[in-house]
Amino acid sequence: MRASVLVETGRVEVQERAVPTPVPGDVLVEIAAVGVCGSDAHYYRHGRIGDYVVTAPIVLGHEASGRIVAVGTGVSESRIGERVSIEPQRPDPDSVESRRGDYNLCPHMEFYATPPIDGALAQYATIGAAFAHPVPDEVSDIAAALFEPLSVGIAAIGKAGVVAGGSVLIAGAGPIGLVCAQVARAYGATRIVVSDINSGRLETALRFGATATVRPDDVGDLEAFDAFVDASGAPSAIVAGIGAVRPAGRVVLVGMGSDELTIPVSIVQNRELILTGVFRYANTWPTATALVAAGLVDLDALVTGRFALDEVADALDADRIEGSIKAVVLPQLVSDGHPAAERRSS
Do strands 212-214 and 191-195 pair parallel, antiparallel, or not at all (unpaired)? Predict the structure, then answer.
């Protein structure tokens, strides 16, 4: 098979690799679509994210969908041919965290495209059968790949306690901020305000669930919110967001930013705010499937560029293009020699 491999910081190349063999309990998936995440771009440009360091060639990509083409021992052959969305996690089922239901926090987790585990930017990949989630016919392959970032939004909005008639402030109008806004709308929130420094992104947010937008410097002038979700990682946005939450409200940190942050502790204490973080997700795929199948969340519309496997470098840099929201790599697509921008979704 062909696989796009990060061979060193700033350089990817397509290599021929053996098609992986599914071990007992696994399925082999022919990959149809892979969303490009900010973490993929960070590994590409910097070779590390915090304590996770690329020390050997690695296949990036953890937002994926495809079709099961083979199964390992213990998996019913009836699953062959099934369209699936991949939940890119391999927790230890016997860890304390997994047994209590928090498998995303398993200390022995093997996660796609987190060194040294290979990801999905290849024609085939294996995953545990329970983490290959069936996809209904009305959901596209691209949308199924984006169940992964949608799951981050589901986890964040769930921790924020957003309910029908509620209000939420979301910092950052990138892909995660946009899915958070859509999930909040689907959950019935009636006031969904998105902040960002980019005016173009703010306009985009109004198409994806936001009822209003604001620049970060103006957040302090707003009526208080039930919850604040940070999808920016920007310290100033986080501090402003915390100050915009009503007493007994919730603050959820999602964006990747500085390892350390100064926060207004007096506000947290005096208002009895609940402050927490989000690290991936657990048990979110059924909700993601239901939201997309019902048309409550539109993932296809997030895609602004489609790339072939030999165009992964361009896909990883697509976030630097004005107006870009989400790049998707289609491993079975053969490059036609035209710029990927000409293959934008309608």
Answer: parallel
Q: Given this model, what pLDDT does residue 336 score?
A: 58
Alpha carbon distance 108, 97 (integer Å) = 10
CA distance 196 to 174: 9
For residue 123, give Cα distances in angstroms to 20, 31, 187, 309, 311: 10, 5, 36, 9, 14
160: alpha, beta or left? (left if phi > 0; alpha if psi -120 to 50): alpha
At 335, is the pLDDT very low, low, confident or very high (cuts 50, 70, 90)? low
How is residue 58 annotated by DSSP? B
| Of 75 and 336, the one with more pLDDT | 75
pTM here is 0.95
pLDDT over threshold 60, residue 337:
no
Burial 89-123 (b: 16+ CB within 10 A, else e): bbbeeebebbeeeebbbbeebebbbbbeebbbbbb
Q: In angstroms, rounded to a whole number, what is the distance separating the alpha carbons of residues 56 and 1?
A: 20
- In three-state form (DSSP H/G/I as H, E/B as E, the rest C), the secondary structure along 234-274 is CHHHHHHHHHCEEEEEEEEECCCCCCCCCCCHHHHHHCCCE
Q: What is the mean pLDDT of the chain?
A: 95
What is d(CA 33, CA 63) in angstroms, rounded to the nearest whole number?
8
User: Across residues 33-53, what is the average pLDDT?
Assistant: 95
Separation in Å, CA 222 to CA 15, 215, 244: 52, 11, 7
Q: Is the pLDDT of residue 248 over 70?
A: yes
- 130-173 pLDDT, tens digit per residue, is 999 999 999 999 999 999 999 999 999 999 999 999 999 999 99
Exposure of 300 by Cβ count < 10 A (0-12 exposed, 13-18 middle, 19+ buried)?
Answer: middle
Q: Where are the beta strands (DSSP E) in the chain?
A: 2-8, 11-16, 26-35, 48-49, 52-53, 63-71, 83-86, 89-90, 110-111, 124-128, 132-134, 167-171, 191-195, 212-214, 225-230, 245-253, 274-277, 303-307, 326-329
What's the burial of 3, exposed, middle or buried (CB within 10 Å: 0-12/13-18/19+)? buried
CB contact at 8 A, 58 and 171: no
